[in-house]
Give the backbone structure.
Amino acid sequence: MKILGLDTSNYTTSAALYNTENGIITLSGKLLPVKKGELGLRQSDAVFHHTKQLPEVVSHVFENEKEIPAAIGVSVRPRNIPGSYMPCFLCGEGLADSISGICGIPVYKTSHQIGHILAALYSSDRLDLVQKRFIAFHVSGGTTDCLLCEPDDENILDITEAGTSLDLKAGQAVDRVGLMLGLDFPCGKQLEKLAMKSTEHFRIRPVIKDGSCCLSGLENKCRAMLDNGSAPEDAALYCIEYIYASIKSMTEYALKKYGSLPVVFAGGVMSDKIIRNKLEKDFEAYFAEPAFSCDNAAGTAVFAALKGDLI
């Protein structure tokens, strides 16, 4: 049995095909084109590029597949909270509804955030956690959230915010510092590669208020480092290690508040090897592999499988 997943975020057009018989998910994705030196896209441009890219991306996961999928999972909003809306998600939702109408198959709609968390659980072989309480981080260009996750019949996961960024999001900080260093957007992979050249050691005290972090000072600190003659790789490492220190402190706060729970890290920023290696030493932590950490449709396919009792 095959399940199609779709996700049209503000960064990537993505599709996934979940084979429930062998548990394998085939991924297909394409970044939205961003002009050099710019930070992201306007929503109108994102919608345009998703519309152009969806046929290619979806066709790729069906290259060797003739079977009509049994169901479709699709992200239709950033988060499952009132007022959470971005026009780019209409692209995936519209295609899912069209395929459903043509093929007579069900569509299961969820949030981009839940998709990220389920992709991380799938990738780390911990889908069993959907029946338990756990802490999840969703760290990307639009979110830096620490979340208490509990089982929920309607949404699979009931999410309570335990902490967030009170200003700049981690992915925004990565991209702003990356552009400052002359890297191309999105800057995460290039910033990590540059940071690995540094031999500096930093003592960082992140700003944490009631379990939430403040990251706006990070950009200013990196700029000051460069102005004072620091090497680009040192500024890159400082940026990454500051984000790590912030996430570590937020995790410690949440575990103290909610008790000893497994911690799952999801979102594009969590694909950074420097951050991952440190957090794995600190906590009972589970990470998605890089392909399942960045924006992808695996989690929406898993959501449809769970909602439709197909696994």
Observations:
- The chain has a mean pLDDT of 95.
- Residues 232-258 form the longest helix (27 residues).
